[in-house]
Design a protein that fits this description.
The chain has 190 residues and is of the alpha+beta class. The longest helix has 12 residues. The protein has a five-stranded antiparallel sheet, with no helix packed on it.
Amino acid sequence: FPLRAQSFDDVDVRFTLQNKNRDAYSFDNEYASRNGVSLTFKKPQGVQTANLVLNVKNNLWADQVLNEYFSKFGNKFDSWMAEQAQFPPEDLIQSILKGDLPLRVYLKKEGQWQKIEELYPVGSLALKEVLVPLNLSGMDADEIELKLETGFMFWDLDYAAIDFTTASPSQLFITHIAPRSALDTALQDQ
């Protein structure tokens, strides 16, 4: 668990982030364009890698903002979506990353913040556990300083910890599962 967990507006959220209990921090400082949390963890001597463990989901506010945005297109929405489909996926991802929708993870090394991950939206219905590999090589400090940044109420952060037991990113693997079917709301196979 973090030694310290402080929101950018100086609220102590350590107790909130200690348990997976749906008592989440919502990055909800309405007076800031960017919201965030600073996390400090004890670093065992000689550790070179670790995994930041986060239990997160997107806030329903993000869904509401997106729905309001889409509603402004009115009867032009379908043609706008068709236009968007013509762009390469990489370009669309880059336009998302330019905004404040991703949850950005930074690690402080040698007094400088280094961005190590940008988490894409994971949905607002259920909390998801996310592992972010941390390269701690060259860090002599006995504490690990991290910060998480995002836009106003786009994410809920339920839990934050560091796992030193399965620290090597090479030990992690992805299993791709092919669904038997994927139907949209119009029962069309996707």
